[in-house]
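Issue 218. Parser rejects a valid record. Input:
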Amino acid sequence: MENVKKVFEALEKDARLTAEQISVMTGVPANEVQRIIKKAEKDGTIIKYKTVINWAKLGEEQVWALVEVKVVPQRDTGFGAIAERIYRFPQAKSVYLASGTYDLAILVAGKTMQEIAIFVSEKLAPMETVQGTVTHFILKKYKEDGVIMDDEGEPRRLGVVA
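Output the parser choked on:
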């Protein structure tokens, strides 16, 4: 199990690593690395590979918001059914069950603040189980998926600390 964890930790930091590179980094033989990865892809342990893109560099501005949602859980399904309805909207990039004043935390993306406001006011808030929402617009990203964004918006990877 320790070998599996080492492979996953390496892939989580950089999904572009080859089996040979992971083998050198972890001491796990390359053929075992390949077997671990194939099995994890098949059984859903590895869900997807992701690239973090600085869209502003391409002139593609995006607006992000964190929307807190208070809901009434449904009989027999709890929060799951309402979460599913919400995560099916393309604007909802991530949906989390959270503790605290609000039940769900939703990371929403759009081209403009108005687009997000319309999504919240016309799609999210009117849902029958939604009791209230609070929208927090993301003003600046300092770190995303483990990558620090410096003042010029250039991604900068953290050094590995042993």
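Fixed in the parser; the record now loads. Strands lie at 63-71, 92-97, 104-110, 130-138, 143-144, 147-149, 155-157.
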